Every structure is written in structure tokens, then in C-alpha cells.
């Protein structure tokens, strides 16, 4: 099964478009979720680890990523990808006028997919679902 989507009409904002003109765009249809416990179980089934071992490892991984991001480090996880912090702020005319407490926005965590995860871009297939099948 491929990645499911349906087509939805949206207002055409292109220059010269009529007032009520519409264009159809794909909208992703979620094919379900997998829980943390299900991920742990799946990894345990494919390795010599127990579900509790996997759970403990992933719990520590989240802690290690968080701790290192707070320290301003990037975290590289090989084929899984990497995490880094990104800052955003309004600007000041001079360095003396800059006040991080009022001008700095909350930091963002940027995830960049690793090679094995990025491969889905070229290998993924798509299944168009008619509106009636998609429930809307």
C-alpha cells in the first residue's frame, strides 16, 4: 500500500485568477499511528533485545538528544538523521540594543532525515483515494 491522499479544492491565488476559481491539491490521509510501545515491540521482535531493553534505550536516547541540544550541540544519529537547534529573533539596530529576553523567539529543533529515511522520497508510491472513500 502506498501513501494515501485525496484531492481537495482550494482557492486559486494565482495572478489573474477569477474570484471563485479553485485548484485541486493533494491532502495526505493518515493511515494510522504506531505507538511507542508498538515501536518497542517491533524492534524487540527483530533483535535479541527485550521490549523493556528497547524502551529503556529509546528513553535514554531522548534524554541524551535533549541534553545535548540544550548545550548547543548537534546530534547525529547516522542513518536515522540528525537534530540541531535553530534560533529566530527580531533584529536590533546595534548590538547594545539587542535584548535576548524580549527579542529571541523560542528555539526550534530541526530534524534532518538520514540517508535511509530520505530514500522514501524516491521509493514511495501514492494511492489516490476518491472523496467518497476518504470520508469527506
From TrEMBL:
Origin species: Parabacteroides faecalis
Pfam families assigned to the protein according to its UniProt record, in alphabetical order: HU-HIG
Keywords noted in UniProt: DNA-binding
Protein's UniProt name: HU family DNA-binding protein
UniProt-listed InterPro entries: HU-HIG, HU_DNA-bd_put, IHF-like_DNA-bd_dom_sf
SUPFAM superfamilies: IHF-like DNA-binding proteins
Residue ranges occupied by any HU domain in the UniProt entry: 1-128
GO MF term (any one): DNA binding
NCBIfam families with a match to the protein in the record: HU_rel
Amino acid at each position: 500500500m502506498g501513501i494515501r491522499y485525496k484531492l481537495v479544492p482550494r482557492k486559486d491565488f494565482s495572478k489573474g485568477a477569477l474570484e471563485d476559481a479553485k485548484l485541486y491539491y493533494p491532502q495526505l490521509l493518515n493511515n494510522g499511528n504506531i505507538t511507542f510501545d508498538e515501536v518497542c515491540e517491533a524492534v524487540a521482535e527483530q533483535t535479541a533485545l527485550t521490549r523493556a531493553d528497547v524502551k529503556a534505550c529509546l528513553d535514554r536516547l531522548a534524554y541524551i538528544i535533549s541534553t545535548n541540544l540544550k548545550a548547543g550541540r548537534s546530534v547525529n544519529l547516522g542513518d536515522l538523521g540528525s537534530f540541531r537547534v535553530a534560533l529566530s529573533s527580531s533584529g536590533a539596530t546595534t548590538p547594545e540594543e539587542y535584548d535576548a529576553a524580549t527579542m529571541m523567539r523560542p528555539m526550534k529543533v530541526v530534524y534532518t532525515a538520514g540517508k535511509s529515511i530520505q530514500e522514501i522520497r524516491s521509493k514511495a508510491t501514492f494511492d489516490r483515494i476518491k472523496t467518497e472513500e476518504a470520508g469527506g
